[in-house]
Design goal:
single chain, 129 residues, alpha/beta, Rossmann fold, five-stranded parallel sheet, 6 helices, globular
Length: 129
C-alpha cells in the first residue's frame, strides 16, 4: 500500500497518462491492495479550483464522492495526531498541506507517491515516483 500526494491522486483519478511508468505500476497494484490519501488533498484541489488555477471537469465534491465510492483510495481525515505530527517534523518545508501529507504517510508507515522533489527531503519519508 501507499499514500498518494495530491497531484498523484488527481492524475490517478482523472489523468493517468501523467503518471510515470513506475507510478502507473504502483497505482495498478494499489487498485488491488488499496491505498491512502490525506483528506487535505481534497481541500487543496478545491482551493485551486476556486482560484481558477485548476479545472477538474467535475465539481470537487463529485471527485471526492467518486474516490470514496471507488473503494481503492481511503481519504484519511486530518486528526489531532496528524496535525501534531506535522508540527513536529524536523523539516524546513512550510507548506501546511505538504506537511500534513508527509505526516499521514509517516503515521501509516507507507511510501508516498509523489513527483515533488521537496517531499523527498522530509526526514524519514520514503518517496517513490
Amino acid at each position: 500500500m501507499l499514500v498518494l500526494d495530491t497531484h498523484a491522486l488527481l492524475w490517478w483519478a482523472l489523468d493517468p497518462e501523467r503518471l510515470s511508468p513506475t507510478a502507473s505500476e504502483l497505482c495498478a497494484r494499489m487498485e488491488k491492495e488499496g491505498g491512502l490519501a490525506s483528506s487535505i488533498s481534497i481541500w487543496e484541489l478545491g482551493v485551486k479550483v476556486a482560484r481558477g488555477k485548476l479545472d477538474l471537469g467535475i465539481p470537487v465534491e463529485e471527485l471526492a464522492r467518486r474516490l470514496e465510492r471507488s473503494g481503492v483510495v481511503e481519504l484519511v481525515p486530518v486528526d489531532v495526531e496528524i496535525w501534531l505530527r506535522s508540527l513536529a517534523l524536523a523539516w524546513s518545508h512550510r507548506d501546511p498541506a505538504d506537511r500534513v501529507i508527509a505526516a499521514t504517510a509517516l503515521r501509516a508507515r507507507m511510501p508516498l507517491l509523489t513527483k515533488d522533489e521537496a517531499m523527498a527531503t522530509c526526514p524519514g519519508l520514503h518517496c517513490v515516483w
